[in-house]
UniProtKB/TrEMBL annotation, chain A:
<keyword id="KW-1003">Cell membrane</keyword>
<keyword id="KW-0472">Membrane</keyword>
<feature type="transmembrane region" description="Helical">
    <location>
        <begin position="113"/>
        <end position="134"/>
    </location>
</feature>
<comment type="similarity">
    <text>Belongs to the binding-protein-dependent transport system permease family.</text>
</comment>
<protein>
    <submittedName>
        <fullName>Carbohydrate ABC transporter permease</fullName>
    </submittedName>
</protein>
<feature type="transmembrane region" description="Helical">
    <location>
        <begin position="82"/>
        <end position="104"/>
    </location>
</feature>
<dbReference type="Pfam" id="PF00528">
    <property type="entry name" value="BPD_transp_1"/>
</dbReference>
<feature type="transmembrane region" description="Helical">
    <location>
        <begin position="188"/>
        <end position="210"/>
    </location>
</feature>
<feature type="transmembrane region" description="Helical">
    <location>
        <begin position="146"/>
        <end position="167"/>
    </location>
</feature>
Automatic annotation (TrEMBL), chain B:
<keyword id="KW-1003">Cell membrane</keyword>
<feature type="transmembrane region" description="Helical">
    <location>
        <begin position="288"/>
        <end position="308"/>
    </location>
</feature>
<keyword id="KW-0813">Transport</keyword>
<feature type="domain" description="ABC transmembrane type-1">
    <location>
        <begin position="91"/>
        <end position="304"/>
    </location>
</feature>
<dbReference type="GO" id="GO:0005886">
    <property type="term" value="C:plasma membrane"/>
</dbReference>
<feature type="region of interest" description="Disordered">
    <location>
        <begin position="1"/>
        <end position="26"/>
    </location>
</feature>
<dbReference type="Pfam" id="PF00528">
    <property type="entry name" value="BPD_transp_1"/>
</dbReference>
<dbReference type="InterPro" id="IPR051393">
    <property type="entry name" value="ABC_transporter_permease"/>
</dbReference>
<feature type="transmembrane region" description="Helical">
    <location>
        <begin position="95"/>
        <end position="117"/>
    </location>
</feature>
Length: 282, 316
């Protein structure tokens, strides 16, 4: 038993030690695949297929990076990924927050029904609507265009639901006062709700960006021209039925694909994880 | 224009999630304003989600194949969904995957959140960050990395485990182990997301409750069972519903790691939809199967929502 009034900082409890050991083990397992990607990317081919395998390379090399960047139009694919994920994020944040504002703060007829309908669309497996959606995008002439990649995702049910939860929790006294003073609904949205919703917008923005950057099937379906693909879909071309690419080259490609997201996340992680605590995502 | 008369207070039962609001302006005025805010999102969702859904429903009653004219075939596709042995196997596999994935991911996330919510833990922010990193990595890349780690010849993890006396063999070719392996990759990729949501939920529980319980002599186990878990039930409902939907719709890592093999042992419902819709071009059948999955997902989510949502209400 620990003394109730003891100095907490000086106490080392056996439970804490055990928990720390458990966390170290779990973190090691969690980080192992990332370590294997990073180290294999710089391993010479002989070492990649050597037995017994090792985590760290003996000799570091850039051969894999060179090979993968010559097999794929890397700069182009990365640019496409940024445009696609960035474009979707930008539009979705604007359209989702507008819709969420109405659902959270305007008492209109049929609000509940609309909310339930929007949540219900979350449960549709994306593959279920893929064929008619492809036909629609093709009819619009948008296959192999940025519009075709971005427009169908310019608003999404999850984002609307997520922001609605957050907007609901914001205090309402200011807006009734502002409404009395004749402030328009859009003004309330722009100068009261949005500035106070920055943590939620940042969190949702990161989620949207990550999900789209990482999406595989979407760019595979809506682009047939390799020049219009994303980095994630481009990588799978290497493993396609046309042949098996060496592990080292695959890992070099994977490293380049995950690097922007991992770095971006490490920069915002502290705020990001804290933000979730203050948002409606729970 | 919104303040043209003094709002009249009248009794309204509080909305379950919303809370009470004061009516301002006329109902039709509010409807018009709401419509302006909703229009862009509703156009996008209507055109690219609802319309394809309706098209898929229509296609599910036809023999559509992407070429030529489709013929109306009535319930034929649905009859096939409920009698086809491949579909039966895919449903069994999806159920197995859901049972492997959902509890593992949710319990791991909850346990780690409980540990890392304690202010006594050293390196708290390092662990929190480390556990979330996999969520930023695509299923495709996760699948490449894990496949390489468990490769029977050159896999590092396989080699280490052999050193510890655990023989894994060729996991992805093993009918018993392939499904646990692809479920494990999903746990790895997604549990960090649930973990962060649990952390947020835990921070909302007032610490005064714990203080009071401590004074009453409640031990850590009693505090967990009587305070933490009941007050977390709303968060639990959210996480469980999202984890179950993720499990029922799983596709990416299976597509990359096993392609549904060995011998169809990792063929899930969505893999079956993809295969019949895009490979065999049996679009009518794929659409019918999609609808059956959609309805199953809806029922399952509702059951979870009612079960866990009610517990929260009882407390307040």
């Amino acid at each position: 038993m620990s003394p109730r009034r003891g100095n907490r900082l000086r106490e080392i409890r056996p439970g804490t030690v055990l928990a720390t050991i458990a966390l170290v083990v779990v973190s090691a397992i969690v980080l192992l695949p990332i370590a294997i990607i990073v180290f294999t990317a710089f391993k010479p081919a002989v070492e990649v297929n050597a037995f017994p395998p090792s985590l760290l390379p003996d000799a570091w090399t850039l051969d894999n990076v060179r090979e993968v960047t010559s097999e794929l139009p890397f700069a182009r694919l990365m640019g496409n990924s940024f445009l696609f994920a960035g474009g979707v994020t930008l539009f979705a944040l604007v359209f989702d927050s507008l819709a969420a504002y109405a659902l959270a703060r305007i008492d209109f007829t049929g609000r509940k029904v609309l909310l339930v309908a929007i949540i219900a669309t979350l449960m549709i497996p994306f593959q279920a609507t893929l064929i008619p959606l492809y036909q629609l995008v093709a009819d619009l002439g948008w296959v192999n265009t940025y519009t075709g990649l971005i427009a169908p995702r310019a608003a999404d049910a999850f984002g609307i639901f997520f922001l609605r939860q957050f907007f609901l929790a914001l205090p309402r006294d200011i807006d009734s006062a502002a409404r009395m003073d004749g402030a328009s609904e859009f003004r309330l949205f722009r100068s009261i709700v949005i500035p106070n919703a920055m943590p939620a917008l940042l969190t949702l923005g990161l989620f949207t960006f990550v999900n789209n950057w990482n999406d595989l099937l979407w760019p595979l379906v809506f682009t047939t021209d390799a020049e219009m693909g994303t980095i994630t879909s481009g990588l799978t071309l290497l493993t396609g039925p046309s042949g098996i690419v060496p592990h080292g080259v695959m890992m070099a490609g994977s490293l380049i694909a995950i690097l922007p997201l991992v770095i971006a996340f490490l920069f915002v992680q502290r705020r990001f994880i804290e933000n979730i605590a203050t948002t409606g995502l729970k | 224009m919104s303040a043209d008369h003094v709002p009249v207070r009248r009794y309204r039962p509080p909305a379950p999630l919303g809370g009470r609001r004061r009516a301002t302006g006329s109902q039709s005025g509010r409807n018009a304003k709401a419509l302006l805010f909703l229009t862009p999102a509703l156009i996008i969702l209507g055109l690219f989600v609802v319309w394809p859904m309706i098209s898929a429903l229509r296609l599910s009653f036809t023999d559509a194949s992407g070429f030529g004219r489709e013929e109306w075939v009535g319930l034929e596709n649905y009859v096939k969904v409920f009698t086809d042995s491949d579909v039966f196997d895919a449903v069994t596999n999806t159920a197995l995957y859901t049972v492997l994935f959902t509890p593992t991911a949710v319990i791991a996330a909850l346990g780690l959140a409980l540990l890392l919510n304690s202010p006594h833990m050293p390196f708290r922010s390092f662990f929190r960050t480390a556990l979330f990193v996999p969520f930023t990595i695509s299923f495709a890349v996760a699948a490449f990395a894990w496949s390489y780690l468990i490769d029977p010849q050159v896999g590092l993890l396989n080699y280490w485990l052999r050193g510890m006396g655990v023989q894994m063999g060729n996991v992805l070719e093993d009918p018993q182990l392939a499904m646990p392996a692809v479920a494990f990759v999903a746990v790895w990729k997604l549990f960090g997301f649930y973990f962060v949501i649990f952390l947020a939920g835990l921070q909302d529980i007032p610490s005064s409750l714990y203080e009071a319980a401590r004074i009453d002599g409640a031990g850590p186990w009693a505090r967990l069972r009587r305070i933490t878990l009941p007050l977390l039930s709303n968060t639990m409902a959210f996480v469980l519903i999202f984890a179950t939907i993720a499990a029922l719709q799983t596709f990416d890592q299976i597509y990359v790691m096993t392609g549904g093999g060995p011998y169809g042992h990792t063929q899930t419902v969505v893999m079956e939809i993809y295969e019949s819709g895009f490979r065999k071009l049996d679009i009518g059948f794929a659409s019918a199967l999609s609808y059956v999955l959609l309805i199953a997902t809806l029922i399952l989510s509702l059951v979870q929502f009612v079960f866990f949502g009610r517990r929260e209400k009882d407390l307040s």
